[in-house]
Amino acid sequence: MRKTTILLASALLACTLLSVKAKAQSLDFTFSESLVSGSPGDTVSFTATLTNTNIGDPISLNSSNITLLTAAPGLTITDDFASTPLTLTPTTGVDPTWTGTLFTVAISPTAGFGSYSGSYEIDYADTLIYSSSYHSTQNFEVDVIPYVPPAHTPEPGNRLLLIAFVGSAILFVLCRDRNSAIRTKKNSAAP
Asked: Which one of 32, 88, 98, 144 has the largest count of C-beta atoms within 10 Å of its C-beta?
């Protein structure tokens, strides 16, 4: 009986310890726009929101990995993972969220038109149990489109300005002559 009680207590303790280590961390990782368009010569940015959804346990953001799924000649990716915080720590009344630019893509003037896709992976860990490592991945796409110049709004030419000036001068003269005629009529009608 005593042996069974000890075995049962040991099993219960082992289950409790294993359940603590099995507690999964969760990083909600989303791009504000996963498809970004740009023209040759442009630089486009990918802004993301990272949220620790496991309230009570901080997570550390360890590293990132960018993988291009399609060949992308003429695209240069600059990872800005260093701008993320080291940890996302949930506390009472504080949202454990970070929003910012994760990476930029410079489109060279010689880049070919088309869509280029890839994935961005963030490696993170539980700060309380460092042996646990997790990954969160989002797909992205860069659409290289032809440059479309902005619509040109023509400025008024010299002729238009001259016509407006002459029209204003004529109106001024006509109004002055009318007022002069009214005054003359009043003066001649006076006894």
From this structure: 88
Classify burial at 48, counting beta carbons within 10 Å of its beta carbon; exposed 0-12, middle 13-18, buried 19 or more: buried
Q: How far apart are CA 76 and CA 110, in angstroms?
A: 12
Answering whether pTM is above 0.70, one says no
**Domain extent listing, the chain:** 25-144
In 3D, which of 80, 100, 98, 101 has the Cα closest to residue 89? 98
- Cα separation of 82 and 64, whole Å? 9
Cα-based torsion angle of the residue sequence 37, 39, 43, 48 in order, rounded to the nearest 10 degrees: 0
pLDDT, one tens digit per residue, over 124-176 is 987 766 667 888 999 999 999 987 777 766 666 667 777 777 778 788 777 77
